[in-house]
Amino acid sequence: MSKEQALLKEYIMADIKLRNRVVMAPMTRSRTNNPENAPTDLMAKYYEQRASAGFIITEGSQISKRAVGYINTPGIYSTTQVEGWKKVTKAVHDKEGKMFLQLWHVGRMSHPDFHNGELPLAPSALNPNETSYTPKGFKDTVTSKAMTINDIKQTVQDFRDGAKNAMDAGFDGVEIHASNGYLLHQFFNRTSNIRTDDYGGSIENRAKILFEVIDEIKKVMPENHIGVRLNPSLHGNFGMTLDEETIPTFDYIVEQLNDYNLAYVHLSEPFTDVTNVPYAEPNIAKRYRPKYKGTLIINNNFDQEKGNKVIEEGLADLVAFGKLFISNPDLPKRFELNAILAKWDEKTFYTSGEKGYTDYPMLTLK
Q1: What is the largest CA-CA distance in the chain?
Q2: Which of the residues are catalytic?
Q3: Is 54 in contact with 19 (CB distance < 8 Å)?
Q4: Which terminal CB of the chain, N or C, has fewer other CB atoms within 10 Å?
Q5: Contact 241, 259 (CB under 8 A)
Q6: Residues 6 or more apart from 348 whose CB is under 8 A from it?
Q7: Domain residue extents for the chain
Q8: Rounded distance between C-alpha atoms, residue 62 and residue 161, angstroms
Q9: In this structure, which CATH number among 3.20.20.70, 3.40.50.1220, 3.40.50.2300, 3.30.365.10 belongs to the domain 2-348?
Q10: Which among 212, 207, 201 has a CA at the least distance from the CA of 185?
Q11: What predicted TM-score, i.e. pTM, was given to this entire model?
Q12: pLDDT tens string 217-266
């Protein structure tokens, strides 16, 4: 009976055959505590343990030094980083797993401590009024530097170069992180983008950078191996607030993405209760499934029951699981057996070493 679960059915995503519809969501784990911020053997073990997912999306990986905003997070801009990622992809592929790398630029969520005292780059000179986890501990964010046109062009190239490096490292595809209050998301929202040039003002202008990034990336890899992650109703987190144009902007973006032959669009349900928040959309899958014609991934606080239900109702094709994958490396098998799920330890989410990372046990069958 359990094999009939919607989550456990095979799925063809573009030309990639997935063994199930249980996706490992991208999660920062802060394990690259080395000068190069290069993936390690420990990270290869962590991802290998979870290779039974339909496919894995890595933690966010910075496309340049200017993209960095958190300590001990990996990059995809140096030869050493590419070599480190090669170990990871080989470990996952040896287990017949599939893996996409998430391309990341944090924008104004960074801090001068990461940039030799220079201000973080962002669409506009605004402070998100959050905290940044710097090499010297948590610090308040600052007012960022508004990007010049040349800064924007360079960043678009950095996304392309990151994608090329990801392909060189053996990944099956890339996910563009346009979500969770980071750089591309900062361009989309009028509350974080007050530019008056071609990248500000109208909905089309504020969304423009995402399509430029996709157009550049598809020059160096197959278009149908590119995914895009969005979080339309993010409110009160990562410095983002909604206004009357936020959801119409995401409506426009999602509808325009139909013009591309992407691997998928990856959407998050709201991180906080937005039921009574003006201008919010509390039901993301329901709103965007009719608007997007390709493969749709949904995430945020799904469990086995909710995951099966959202696929059965036709509101998503795949479901991404985060914390459940941290503590249950063999999550699809546990779903198959309706087994008890292990609890995660939040205290070890962003620490170093094996504890809370590679020491969660696999299911042992008696």
Answers
A1: 65
A2: 182
A3: yes
A4: C
A5: no
A6: 355, 356, 357
A7: 2-348
A8: 11
A9: 3.20.20.70
A10: 207
A11: 0.98
A12: 999 999 999 999 999 999 999 999 999 999 999 999 999 999 999 999 99
